[in-house]
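Usage

Read records sequentially. Each one opens with the input sequence:
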Amino acid sequence: MAFQPALHAEWIKIRTLRSQVGGLCAVLLATVAFSALAGADTDGDDVDPLFSAFFGVTFGQVAAIAFGTTAVAAEFQGGALRVSLAAVPHRGRWFAAKAAAIALPVLAVGLITGFATLVVGSATLGEEADGLGAAEGVRAAVGCGIHLTLMALFAAGLTAVLRSGVAALGILVPFLLLASFVIGDLSGSVADFLPDRAGQVVLHGERDGTLGPWTGLAVTALWTAAALAAGAWRVRRRDA
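and closes with the structure output:
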């Protein structure tokens, strides 16, 4: 089977599963809701208004990794991977189609989420939003979509390596919600190059670290590429 019909088949799998559609909706809802709460609770002179407007991405990325994880983990249940590989014997092509079927809807939802978060976050910030420039707002909105997509693909690659959605989520969710916050306080250290921390630099108006908005996303892209490469190798080497 060629790549295009393989991609179409993988997209059908995603859009016909309620859990997958719900995961995409959760990306939007979690990001906007937590950004609104953070914006409404912001007061102080040391606050970065841009990041306050996009604070919900910290939680929206959890929904994104859950989406990427479940999309791949479903293949390792009930012999589904054997059926998929029977239709697309070229394992590398199948995995590329799976990754593309994950990336495209997350990118679309992520961009919608980014601009919706910008509007809602700016509204809840009130006077604090006066310091936001149009250019940096658009940059953060687009960067939000790209970051969420990279995190979903990072989770997909890790799930393919571990061949278990539970194991992948058991590693990523505690890391994103706990460990990254703790070691993220070590400014200027290796913590700046963690996948979630680096990607979120694009959401900041004021930056003290070594990475810029796009170099931060590039670091996250390298993590994602490594995870996908490892996942593709695992799929090719292991029996279905």
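Summary fields computed downstream for this record:
- The chain has a mean pLDDT of 86.
- DSSP finds ten helices and no strands in the chain.
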